[in-house]
Design brief:
The chain is mostly helical. It is built from 14 helices and no strands.
Amino acid sequence: MRRIIGFLLCVCLMGGLAQSAHAQTAPDDSEIATYRGLLAAVAGGKLGDVKRLIASGTDLNAIDGHGRTPLMVAGYRRDLAAARLLIKAGADLNRLDVQRYDLITIAAVANHMEMVKLAIASGGNPRLMTSPYDGTALIAAAHLGHVAVVQALIDGGAPLDHVNNLNWTALIESIVLGDGGQRHVACLRALVKAGANVNLADGSGVTPLELARGAGYTEMVRILEAAGARQ
């Protein structure tokens, strides 16, 4: 038990520092002021200009200084109309920015279900390894407790047991970076129902069941035990 408590304290510190250091970065006003062409049109919500520039044969995957494409900017803006235009014209759904985020992960973190569904239905790859953590959109969504997005990614074929460079799966992140509340419980339940490995331990050999018990998350413990999780 002492090992688990100490581990969880480290998780709180490391998770907070890591997430602040490597969080997704939406374009700020100073960056947008430097945009030209399609990037500027998307950032400004000017659909008429977006259509005109696409028709002129402009580069659909032009990037800003952070490696963001117009489609990524549409994702940050939650602009489905612009995203549909860009996707229909052939914009790269699976391009990564300099921090290795793609449209699906951007939308997953933003809890933007419509954008997640659009990206997957249009050929976006939910199996991509993304982020500085070598993670996936599913891991990010489970960490944040975005239940509907987690289910959409599961339905779209996201890898259930991918292990990131923190040695955590989506299931483990729903425990160690969750709050034990109903949203994270629902994420864990969806992962278990889909067939995620309930006995895949973290890098220290601590199992999901041990992690949930150590955190006092009784509902998660019940779900894991019912699925055959071992101490």
